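Dear colleague,

Thank you for sharing your sequence with our group. We've completed the structure prediction you requested, and as agreed, I am returning the results in plain text so they can be pasted directly into your records. Please verify that the sequence below matches your submission; if there's any discrepancy, let me know and we will rerun it promptly.
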Amino acid sequence: MHPDPHPIDTTRDPVLDGRDSFRLVKLRLALTLIAVAVLPIAAVSPLVRAVAEEARVAHHERLVDQARGAVTDIRREINVLRESTRLLLDNPALVAAAQKDSTVATRQKASVRLATFGDQSGSVILATTLLNGAGVRAEFGSGMDLETLPPGVVVAGLASLPGDADEPGARILIVDTSKPGHGPARTLVTAVSVPALLAAATPDVQMPGRILRMADGNGTVLAESNEPFDPTALPGEVLDLATMAAHDSDGRASIDLPGIVGWQVVVSAPIPLVEMPVQALGALGAMLLLLVAFTTWMARQILRPARQLENSRSHLRELYESAREAALKDSLTGLGNHRAFQEAVTRMVEGARRYGTVFSLVLLDIDEFKRINDTKGHATGDQLLAEVGALIGATMRHTDAAFRIGGDEFAMLLPHTDAAGAIVVARRLLSRGLEDRVAGDYRWPISFSAGVTACPEFGTTRLELTAQADAALYRGKRNGRTVVSIYDPEKDHGHLDEGMRAELSAAISAVIEGGTLSPVYQPIVDLGSGRVIGYEGLVRVPRQSAFPHTGALFDAAEIAGRVADLDRAALDVVLRGARSLKETMSLSVNISPRTLEASEFSAAAFLAILRRNGMSPGRVVLELTERETIRDPDRLRNVLLGVQNAGVRVAADDVGAGNAGLRLLSQFQFDVVKIDLSLVQRAGDDRTHSVLRSIVEVAQRMGATTIAEGVETSGQLRTARHLGITSGQGYLLGRPGPERDLEWVDIAAMEQREDVPVPIRAELPFTERRRDFAPRPDEPLERSELLPPLKANALSTVRRRSMGLLKAGRERMEAE
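Please find the predicted structure tokens below.
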């Protein structure tokens, strides 16, 4: 078992990585249920507060009533004493003692009478003094300093004095005088004990912890009675602590008698908490039990689907891992596919950058694989690919990873291995492949060429490493094949010139960002009626561009890895220019397979570009050329199916031109088949005629329409119509241009016109032709001052490649 070269990364999905686990669901449920339990309490609390407030108010009212009752008793007691004092003034003993000539015996008799009066009132009266203008005539109790009486006390009849050491507590003086004309003038002053008066006025209704106070106008407590409380005296009540002042309440009432204005009686007592009845306690218990039962039931109802969701999540994780593993695995060889290779290289490059580790990359390409396919059939070719995959799996180490990244291209990643070690592994694999095998579906020797590079010895990025290994691989193929080559910066410099790539990329960016591309449109004509059914959108570079023609621009984009960016820019230019195209006509656009296979491109991205330019998907034909190798057919198929489901028609472009023959038609479902001009222009040849007829028959069986490309003579037009090709395009039917107003051409007249050869057009190779990249030899290759100038070697490389393609095309045409 080899380690998975593309481990599952589930950190981006909260469902798959378990962050929303069943335990977290239970925790959230517990918090929710606590909140649900608190809600009834929060709802009942206002009611409880209202009941408590009502009890507090009622308790306060009871205390106020008691204070008023005490005030009433005190007033009554004072009035009784005052009345008794008036009656006592008329007593004969006091009248005789008040005479000026009264004897000692008479005054003693009066004192006895005062003592009798004091004894009758209990402890309320502390002292009584009889006096006239000459001074004291008789007295009872402790003497009083009458000089301290406030002015007007005789008139008021009441006064207050502080207590003394013998009789603590405040006193009330009741002063009364005889009426004028009733014998000798006499005054009777009676000192009444405030505490005794307060005790005598205590209401009969008792309350637990009650305190009765009398205070003067300044708030000073003059007397206080604190009666002990026996809790057993009031069964059935649960009392708060009497000492907790926060729970106390009081009632006040003013005495308001002359001489003691502002005096108050204050009754204080703690608020009792009444014990709840058994019925209420039972109802509360039943409510709590009901709440617990409901909470338990609700928890089960929530946890049941949550547990099912957790099980589904686990199952989904397993399915996801299986599906992702299948998506990253090549079904034929069992190795990782191109996507898995890209992810693995990216991870290893990041590991090398972060931890300083070393790894090597080996690219393998089977020698003569096309010949094997052509001579022994595709089934044998598939057996060869499977055998190579098995051979790699049996040869590489446990820590290595292998991938099939293209048709007959393989890659190996060797961690903790330098380039020298990778050479040993690759050569061991090559020697085993060249041996005869007694087992397996493919018994013949297997020859391949390999290119080796290492990180960080030669490169430090994914693109850099793959380009280096690819350069070493193809140097080995050029030198005879069946060889393992290590990347050599000197020998492979022409294949990979980073400075040139940077210059080309900057020039391409200037073309894209400067908006210098211009659109042209070539009509596509129905060969039966002559009606123009649509246009193919093409682009051109301006005269002042750094590139001699648009073919050189796209060649440079391929070298610099900017094909996808240039395709997007060309697509936007063509779509913007076609906004005024009649709705009955279609628009064909070209996109490179490299762009369609790119991870950042998708069907949704293509449809978004159409929407942004106001183009309906049903009017668009997406052309896919057969000339360029398809590296990731699975991803390309998904993209094509995505756009087809949205209504976009897909065309197989340049059918018959590529080395693969009709394989493109067997791999994908196409709506349109465009026959390459190389076949159309050689339609007079019998073998070519048979190939054309076969392509038309295949297209008819697929239900696809056919378009003949490069129709430039009346003979080619007649041949295309005779073969049943439904539509055509070419210089004979209409040249590319900015106009889009052609609606019909005279097919019959064109069939009869004299043929005029178009040598330049006929000799153009594909890269100059498929987007109307025709070079203009008569136009000077001026550079725009707005574009960054290219280095001589970069520009010459682009031009040499373009001219080489032109030369190869001419030689091929002459040989044919």
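Summary note from our side: The mean pLDDT is 77.

Kind regards,
the structure core
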